[in-house]
Hints:
203 residues; 2 helices; 33% helix; flat
Amino acid sequence: xxxxxxxxxxxxxxxxxxxxxxxxxxxxxxxxxxxxxxxxxxxxxxxxxxxxxxxxxxxxxxxxxxxxxxxxxxxxxxxxxxxxxxxxxxxxxxxxxxxxxxxxxxxxxxxxxxxxxxxxxxxxxxxxxxxxxxxxxxxxxxxxxxxxxxxxxxxxxxxxxxxxxxxxxxxxxxxxxxxxxxxxxxxxxxxxxxxxxxxxxxx
Length: 203
């Protein structure tokens, strides 16, 4: 009986260790996946700061890449948001300017933030934005409309296997976050002024 109990305890311990290991591996998969995707350039993420056009970059007029523009709006965002042009055919190395058109349909001042992605993911590292509305928050008054510029180029060394790139933006409503951040800054500023006043009074 004692041997059976020992075996059962050993089995239970092994099972518990296996379960803990499985949970740990599951949590580790997310950062590992991100690292792998970043290393291989397959995550569809594009540059988040302005790219500098290389000096002497010459468009490859022998090739054409089809660029498709898409837009998605988060459910709580009371805007319309559409690309000025849905499709463009461009040469790698050619600097292209276009825009997205946004309109605030609500009766209140609203701030939006656009998050871009490019597919196929392998092509994301070859898609460079010189200017993009996604670099900054986009405030818009009630019932107002704005043209939001986008200037980009595709690197001339993009693999020949890539003939089409799809640039997609998802628009989020960050008005509450902006209000919270502003209130926090005002509170900190007020506290600093009070501290300065007290220090001045003690001198």
